[in-house]
Amino acid sequence: MNNKIRALLASALLVGTAPLATGCDLIASIQTATKTTNATSAMPQTQVHEEIVNALSQRLDTLEVTYSGTEDTLKQDIKDILNNAINADDYLHYIVKTYGYNAKITGTTATITFSFTYWETLSQTNEVKKRVAEALKQILTPGMNDHQKEKAIHDWIVTNVAYDTRLISYSAYDGLVNGSTVCQGYALLTYEMMKQAGIPVKIVEGSSRNIAHTWNLVQIDDEWYHLDTTWDDPVPDVVGRVVYNYYNLPDAELRSDHTWEPSTRYPTAVTSYNQTLTALTVKGEPKADFYNTLYEQLGYIYLTAPYTATNLQDLTSRIRVAVKNGRKELVLRYTQGSTVESDMKKAFSAQKGLSKYRYSYEDFTRTTADDKILRIEFYYS
Question: What is the pTM of this model?
Fold first, then answer.
């Protein structure tokens, strides 16, 4: 081994993660008792992997091991072992705040000191598990299938947790005990609740709205869907409000405002949940009423002609009919999202009998086009 490579390997090598939720500054790490596990003989890769996972599970601050490998690949081996161990469990991965190592090389043997900091202490994680189990006993009932369990969990999280606008709380513990957290905490809590309910679940790391972001993938009836409980809990928090804009989206629909790097850790989500619910309803199952209600809550009715305006003329006509019938509100999908504001002015310029109107609009996540959901309120003179 040449001296340059030896010096590089012997130096402090940091392989770390930054907070994934908002891009805000790191806060002081959670304090845990400092412990060191010593290994006097060289370990194979699998054992080093297991030692790291065990250290994370116990929330150890440091771990010292001795590893013997091939001289040419020793440095890469250490990085791979560490990264694979960090990625072995999604919950452990995302409660690790920072991680790194310092390796001292002698020939083909490395004495490695790994270091970790965490967003949650072990006692806090145990409290999360306990509170999640208690919550599931309250919201899940015998006979529920995974569709019903998922909705109950989604709704519970959205109604019991608020987004931390201070951007300092990152854990599921923060969300459960203190009432607020950022997206990382939402994803961790969703993960733990789904896991305890028996629903396969992943945590996905990417970005949305130009900031770092995390959300979940859930598997329902052998199909994977994206579930973003953070963006289904808009700011400011309103007690009892639940939205479903990011509930069970396939890859193609979520990519309208989410991005993520392809990874073998992320199964593909290719099935439209619209088709899934429609097929379940057609079967005439005893849970058909649940599926029909969920179909409406998820906004799939706005994919149908009675709830869609495709151009300015269509929009103007629908508003005219609503005013003629004395309606106080009109909600529909407008497929000309890029011109919604100017078209609304034109559509109302010809209306009579109104003292004023108000409207709001938001992206419609169930299509890949620039569709908007329009909510219009009418006030009569």
Answer: 0.85
